[in-house]
Design a protein that fits this description.
The complex is a heterodimer of chains A (110) and B (118).
Chain A (H helix, E strand, L loop, with lengths): L3 E4 L2 E5 L4 E7 L6 E7 L6 E7 L4 E4 L2 E6 L4 E6 L8 E9 L2 E4 L3 E6 L1
Chain B lengths: L4 E3 L2 E4 L5 E6 L6 E7 L6 E7 L2 E5 L6 E5 L5 E5 L8 E8 L13 E2 L3 E5 L1
Parallel strand pairs in B: 2-11
Antiparallel strand pairs in B: 1-3, 3-8, 4-5, 4-9, 5-6, 7-8, 9-10, 9-11
Classes of the chains: A mainly beta (110), B mainly beta (118).
Amino acid sequence: GENVEQHPSTLSVQEGDSAVIKCTYSDSASNYFPWYKQELGKRPQLIIDIRSNVGEKKDQRIAVTLNKTAKHFSLHITETQPEDSAVYFCAASWAGKLIFGQGTTLQVKP
Amino acid sequence: DSGVTQTPKHLITATGQRVTLRCSPRSGDLSVYWYQQSLDQGLQFLIQYYNGEERAKGNILERFSAQQFPDLHSELNLSSLELGDSALYFCASSPSRRDRVFWTGELFFGEGSRLTVL
């Protein structure tokens, strides 16, 4: 079945720096790759997503890149702010299943 | 507010017992997903329903079962509970495209049901 590996598990950056989180997936048939942000005690919420026919997508300070050949995709957050501190999950979708990575705890230090 | 309602919010029970978690999806969403999130763990996919039918299955234990009713609400039944079943159980709904059977879009998560097994 589909497996999604996410790295790093924790990431600490200084406010204003960039943060990069990487994921790899196992099933080449996966065609949808969303990223979710989960603040402490809250529900996960979609922050950006990309489909397999697109290589890159950007929304203000966040961007996602997809390399289908290598089966990996990445989340880039620029000019990080303390409110970006949260757990970030990548996911890959195939045949109705949306499989999540293990999550990355991002801490942005002021 | 995502529009997805889960009840109960908190539930404390004993080992060996059975509980039912309920989920009402957003108005118009046909797909319902169930996920388990244990302490310091990711989101483990359990099962997905589309318009009343099971669509995809993850690592759901045989002690667990789910269904989606004609009004599209869904229930997750957990039986013979063990300590390790203590977790936050999320339901999520998603819009669907009738022209694409396995199309996946944004998942809207409920607030979760926190289950504690003592």
